[in-house]
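Customer escalation, tier 2.

The customer says the design service returned an amino acid string that "doesn't look like it belongs to this structure." They asked us to rerun it and document both sides in this ticket. The original structure tokens are below, unchanged.
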């Protein structure tokens, strides 16, 4: 099924390859756009099927900077999509209340930008010094440009002469983003069909032959992409791929969500606040906040969750309804099976603490496109793909697990059980071991080849942000900090002067 190469003296005969994407949620439409853009000059037909009877999950409103790259790849300007999706800029996640015993009320995990190269070294050195027992300044937000911008509530757009590339993500309305991506994919030639899939027929070798639908008959294709959400219609149900649950590592399996009014000053960050039995997100859009409470049904039921959520939002007396969701946390044992790959919730989900789901959709779709363009569908390629994707999921999982393992809350069994949980991977144990033994974390991250998942700066933000340090020594260094953090702060504050517009002024408007 590779692309046809010309044979000397013969006219080129191209067989059209048909790829059928099942699912019109954000994952399905992202994949459709990426495929159509990459293969515009190839004999490839892309068909996307979805059923309005099933609908989309309708949450997932925060991204990583990978989404910026997604729009750049498609050549879509921010002014074209952001206002249509009520989108805002996101430079940071602010974690509040995760480690009260360390005396740190909140910390930041900013997206890392090019300019941070100058200050991150000072951050690492101060953290190491602090681990050695001397009092140094280790607040991540003061060392990283997006941390400074978040504190000043400034957007990440720079004047043209600013010499560094800024990294940032977005907050957006997931329904509107889906609509926008659907329109764009159709412009690129993607065929859209509404059909409820109720069966799958396979070839003798296990490949999917066609899908059976009530309304559109049998739908055949060469390749299938399962974007059917948590039901994992093709990968799990039809092909019998096993699902590896992360329940032992991550307890949360449910969420309750409700919008609230937006404030006058729209923040440039997501807030993740730990409360009695889980954590709440607060995501600013141009027209509302999206809020949600992620919790474990082993510790509280949905009524109790809604009560705690409403209290947290000061909405106990409000009639505004909440929406309850179940989450299946874990991932497929194989992400590519026969002539099918899984993407999005159909392939797996790690809870939304770092908003990594769409990031993984894009990374996996791109990896698959590389393999597909090469056209070498060997067993070896397939296993390599499966191994690489599993590794991605596991490393993201470990970073999230660390947030629970290191918590210092004492207000519920939920937090104590998370702290006491011994189901952590060897990779994470080794990282924590190196940190607490005061050794070189950067070296350990390089040794484990983790940089492309969550890198050294992110791990320092988390560990320093939690105040996960050994006790301070009696003898303090006085004025002798290895790096003068004040100099760093002056430097970053100086840079921040370039970002002189607030989010409200930055959000592109649709031209009339
Ligand atoms: C509580 C929560 C919070 C989240 N927060 C974030 C976040 O902040 N950032 C982030 O990146 N991600 C987040 N996510 C994940 C994000 O919501 C999803 O990754 C994203 O919406 C993509 O979903 P999807 O397209 O895989 O599935 P869905 O949106 O569920 O779409 C499934 C599609 O499959 C179709 N389908 C299903 N069955 C059939 C059938 N039988 N026949 C035909 N069609 C069918 C449906 O019609 C639908 O179009 C969150 C998820 C949850 C649960």
């Amino acid at each position: 099924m590779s692309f046809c190469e010309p044979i000397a003296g013969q006219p080129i005969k191209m067989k059209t390859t048909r790829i059928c994407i099942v699912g019109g949620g954000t994952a399905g439409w992202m994949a459709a756009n990426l495929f159509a853009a990459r293969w515009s000059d190839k004999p490839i037909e892309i068909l996307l099927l979805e059923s309005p009877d099933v609908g989309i999950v309708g949450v997932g409103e925060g991204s990583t900077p990978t989404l910026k790259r997604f729009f750049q790849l498609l050549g879509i300007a921010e002014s074209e999509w952001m206002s249509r999706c009520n989108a805002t800029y996101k430079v940071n996640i602010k974690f509040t209340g995760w480690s009260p015993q360390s005396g740190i009320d909140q910390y930041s995990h900013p997206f890392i930008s090019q300019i941070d190269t100058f200050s991150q070294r000072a951050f690492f050195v101060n953290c190491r010094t602090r681990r050695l027992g001397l009092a140094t300044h280790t607040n991540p937000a003061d060392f990283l440009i997006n941390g400074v911008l978040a504190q000043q509530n400034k957007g990440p757009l720079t004047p043209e002469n600013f010499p560094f590339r800024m990294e940032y993500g977005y907050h957006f309305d997931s329904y509107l983003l889906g609509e926008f991506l659907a329109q764009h994919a159709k412009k690129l030639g993607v065929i859209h069909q509404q059909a409820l899939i109720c069966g799958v027929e396979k070839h003798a070798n296990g490949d999917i032959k066609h899908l059976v639908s009530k309304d559109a008959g049998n739908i055949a294709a060469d390749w299938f992409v399962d974007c059917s959400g948590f039901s994992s219609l093709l990968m799990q149900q039809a092909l019998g791929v096993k699902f590896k649950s992360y329940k032992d590592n991550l307890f949360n399996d449910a969420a309750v969500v409700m919008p609230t009014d937006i404030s006058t000053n729209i923040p440039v960050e997501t807030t993740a606040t730990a409360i009695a039995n889980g954590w709440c997100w607060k995501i600013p859009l141009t027209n509302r906040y999206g809020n949600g409470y992620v919790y474990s049904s082993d510790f509280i039921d949905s009524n109790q969750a809604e009560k705690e959520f409403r209290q947290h939002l000061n909405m106990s007396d409000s009639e505004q309804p909440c929406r309850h969701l179940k989450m299946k946390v874990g991932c497929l044992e194989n992400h590519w099976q026969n002539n099918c790959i899984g993407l999005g919730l159909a392939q797996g989900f790690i809870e939304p603490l770092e908003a990594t789901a769409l990031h993984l959709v894009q990374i996996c779709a791109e990896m698959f496109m590389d393999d597909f363009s090469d056209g070498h569908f060997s067993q070896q390629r397939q296993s390599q793909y499966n191994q690489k994707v599993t590794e991605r999921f596991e490393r993201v999982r470990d970073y999230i697990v660390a947030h629970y393992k290191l918590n210092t809350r004492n207000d519920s069994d939920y937090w104590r059980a998370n702290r006491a949980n011994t189901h952590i991977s060897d990779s994470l144990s080794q990282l924590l071991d190196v940190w607490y033994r005061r050794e070189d974390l950067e070296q350990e991250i390089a040794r484990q080849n983790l940089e492309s998942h969550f890198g050294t700066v992110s791990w320092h933000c988390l560990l320093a942000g939690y105040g996960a340090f050994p006790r301070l020594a009696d003898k303090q260094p006085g004025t002798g900090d290895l790096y003068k953090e004040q100099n760093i702060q002056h430097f970053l504050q100086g840079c921040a002067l370039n970002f002189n517009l607030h989010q409200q002024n930055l959000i592109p408007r649709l031209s009339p």
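Tier 2 assessment: The sequence is consistent with the input. DSSP finds 16 helices and 21 strands in the chain. The pocket of flavin-adenine dinucleotide is lined by residues 22-28, 49-51, 54-57, 59-63, 174, 196-197, 227-229, 231, 233, 255, 292, 325, 327, 344-346, 352, 355, 357-358 (CB under 6 Å). Sent an explanation to the customer and offered a walkthrough call.
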